[in-house]
Design goal:
Layout (H helix, E strand, L loop, with lengths): L3 E3 L4 E3 L2 E4 L2 H9 L7 E6 L4 E9 L4 E7 L8 E8 L3 H14 L1 E7 L16 H15 L6 E5 L2 H13 L3 E5 L15 E5 L7 H9 L3 E3 L8 H12 L4
The structure holds S-adenosylmethionine.
Length: about 240
């Protein structure tokens, strides 16, 4: 945990937070914070500063909050469209995507996405929020990305995707494309990453028809989580 992330429900007063969940346990057991120790905190999508441990009764930790004027670490100007991975991969990947600074995640269906993945409980709001929270705690950013779910491919590709692109650069990560992925794009983009079994040609064609360009980052076929990290590191100077 590089920054404790708080929500309005954790605040008894603007300058007093009370925790009794995983975060309290982490402060106690992993950070080893004692009464009087300080740690960095931020309110999700809000202000940040320094929290001092006031008391700990073994279940509840009370923190005195002092706010600073420091601006939040900004998002990358990237909306990531990701074919829904299997639950075990998705949980880690959502954390990593949040840590890397993606502003908006669209989880989509594809022919090679197993239908059962959509029933997984990690897609429930509180479970998603927990993964995003872990990603924010890791990166130290207080900004929480938006997550949208699209369980039908065609309506997403034909109706949502063109609006999402707007005037931005849109890229489909596709290992078999002859076009090399740009380096240091550093401007707003929509990046599409396929399922573990890859997109079908029909899907690549439909996304391309909306103005997205299939691009490759080399001949090696990378796992989805490796591809996402390599692509974002190549397109952006990570902030
Ligand atoms: N056998 C699959 C296929 O036919 O595409 C491989 C899929 S790969 C495990 C999962 C996704 O990661 C791909 O759909 C693509 O979006 C991305 N990816 C993996 N390696 C890539 C590369 N070398 N260039 C661009 N994208 C890549």
């Amino acid at each position: 945990m590089n920054r404790l992330i708080l929500f309005s429900a954790d605040l008894e007063e603007k300058n007093l937070a009370v925790l009794h969940d995983r975060r309290a346990q982490h402060i106690r057991s992993v950070l080893g914070s004692k009464i009087g120790d300080s740690l960095k905190f931020g309110v999700a999508n809000g202000e940040s500063g320094t929290a001092q441990v006031l008391s700990d009764n073994g279940t509840h930790i009370y923190l005195q909050l002092e706010y600073s004027q420091a601006p939040p670490i900004s998002f990358l100007p990237c909306s990531l469209v990701l074919a829904l991975p299997r639950p075990k991969v998705a949980r880690r990947l959502i954390q990593a995507i949040c840590t890397l600074g993606v502003s908006e995640l669209h989880l989509i269906n594809a022919y090679r996405v197993d239908k059962s993945y959509w029933k997984s409980h990690y897609l429930e709001e509180d479970q998603l929020r927990e993964q995003l929270l872990l990603g924010m705690e890791q990166s130290g950013s207080t900004l929480m990305p938006e997550v949208h779910q699209h369980s039908l491919f065609r309506p997403f590709a034909e109706d949502v995707f063109p609006k999402l692109i707007g005037g931005k650069t849109a890229l489909i990560a596709h290992p078999y494309s002859e076009t090399k992925c740009p380096v240091a794009l550093n401007c707003p983009s929509v990046l599409v990453v396929g399922p573990e079994g890859g997109f079908t040609q029909f899907e690549v064609d439909l996304l391309s028809a909306q103005g997205a360009l299939p691009v490759s980052i080399g001949n090696r076929i990378l796992r989805v989580e490796t591809a996402v990290t390599a692509l974002l590191g190549r397109l952006y100077e990570l902030s």
